[in-house]
Amino acid sequence: MAQLWGGRFTKETDQLVYNFNASISFDKKLYAQDIKGSIAHVMMLAKQQILTEIEKEKIIGGLEGILDDVEKGKLEISEKYEDIHSFVEATLIDRIGDPGKKLHTGRSRNDQVALDMKLYTRDEITQIDALLKELLHSILVIMDEHTETIMPGFTHLQKAQPITLAHHLGAYFEMFKRDHERMTDIYKRMNTCPLGSGALAGTTYPLDREYTAKLLGFDGPTLNSMDGVSDRDYLIELLSALSMIMMHLSRFCEEIIIWNSNEYRFVEIDDSYSTGSSIMPQKKNPDIAELVRGKTGRVYGALHSLLTTMKGIPLAYNKDMQEDKEIAFDAIDNVKGCIALFTGMISTMQFRTANMEASAKNGFTNATDAADYLVNHGVAFRDAHGIVGQLVLYCIEKNIALDDMTLEEFKKISPVFEEDIYDAISMETCVNKRVTIGAPGKSAMREVIKIYKQYLREYDR
C-alpha cells in the first residue's frame, strides 16, 4: 500500500479499510487534469521563487513524461496507490528524485482534488455542449425540410389540432437550446480556481493564486478557501442540467417509440438503430430510443445521490465528497453517449408523411377550425362548439372525417355552413392561417427557422 501520509501512523492500514478508502480505481480518470494542475502549480512556485528554475524544469519535464507515457500506454496507473495524486507524485519522485518531493509544496490534496474535478468537469461541459450543437443542427435540418408536413398535434395523447413536423420538432429545439444555455451558465459560474486553498485555511507560502488561475484558464481564484475545497455546487448544477437533457431526450424517445408502432407508423427507424426479436421475425424494435429513455433514471439517480451526500456535510472537506466522482463520471459518460446515439438515430430516421397527414385528418383535428368558421359567420362560440360536437358525433357514427361530409350533411346540423367550409377546414388552411410567431403556419415557421439558423451561427463562433 503506497501512501504519502504515513509519518503520523505506527500501524499499517487494514487492507479492507485501505480498499474502502482508496479512490484510484475511478479517480485515475483525472490523470491528465492532475498533471496539468501540477504543472501550473510548479510554474507558479518558481515564479514566486519558492522553487528554483532548475527544480521547475526537472519537475515539469518529469510530469510531462508521465503524461506522455500514460497516454501512449507505456505506463500503467497502478492501483497499489491510494489515489491518482499519490500515483503521480510517487512516480515523479521515482523518476527525478528529490526535486519531485517539492511538488506538493503549498498545496493539499483537498485543493488538488477540487482543482482536478473542476478541470475535468469544465472539459466535459465543453464536450457535452458540442454534442448538443450537433443535435440542434440535426433537428433544424429536419425542420427545414418539413414545414409543409402536416401531422396531428396532441394533448393528453389525444389528437387535438393539426400542426407540422417542423413545428413539433421546434419544441425540442427550444428544449435543447435551453440545455445549451445551461451548459454555458454552469461553465461561467464554476470557472474559479480552488488551487491555493490548501486543506481549508490557505497557506503561509507567498502563492500567486491569480497567476495559477490564469495559467489554467480560470477567471480568477476562489475567494474563500473553505468553500474552495468543499464546493460541489457546480457538480450538482451539472447533474441537474444533465437530468434535464435526459428528460428532454426521453420525452422525444417516447414519442419516437409511439410513432414507430404499427398503430401510428409515422416513422421508420434506420436498421442501424434498430434490433430484431430472437423469436418473432417480423419485429423491428426501437431499442436505442428505449435505452435512452431507460438511462434517464440512472442520471436522475446521480443527482439525488450527490444532493443526499452533500446535505449533511459541515465545513470544510470531508471524505464523503469522494462519492461525487463515480456517479458524476457515469452520468457524464451516459449523457454523452445518449446524445450522440440519439442524434444519429433522428438523422437517419425516415418520416412517413402521408400517414402523418392522414392521422391528422382522421382525428378531427380541424374541429376547432370548423367552430371558428361558424363564429366568423355570426354564431356564438358556445353554440358553435355544440354544433361541431354534433358534427364529430355524426362522423364517428358514419366512420368518416369532417372533410368527407357532404354540404347537405353539414346543413342538416347547421344551415350556416356553405361551400367555403371545405377550404376553411382543410389541413393546409388550418395550419397556415396560424401565422403568429411561434405558431405552425409556414410563414411563421420560416421566420423561426431563420432565427434558429442565426442562433447556431453564433453558437459556432
Element layout with pairings:
Layout: H1 15-21, H2 24-27, H3 31-47, H4 53-71, H5 84-96, H6 109-145, E1 150-155, E2 158-164, H7 165-190, H8 209-215, H9 225-230, H10 233-259, E3 267-268, H11 287-310, H12 324-348, E4 350-351, H13 353-362, H14 367-376, H15 381-398, H16 407-413, H17 421-424, H18 427-432, H19 442-460
Antiparallel strand pairs: 1-2, 3-4
Q: What's the rounded overall pLDDT mean?
A: 94
Helix content: 55-70%
Residue stretches low in confidence (pLDDT < 50, at least 5 long) are none
Measured between the Cα atoms of the first and last residue, the distance is 49 Å
Largest sheet features: 2 strands, antiparallel
Number of strands: 4
- Rg is 30 Å
Determine the number of helices (DSSP H or I, runs of at least 4 residues): 19
β-strand amount: under 5%
**Principal-axis shape:** elongated
Q: Output the helix-strand order.
A: HHHHHHEEHHHHEHHEHHHHHHH
Structural class: mainly alpha
Q: For the largest beta sheet, what order do the strands appear in spatially?
A: 1-2
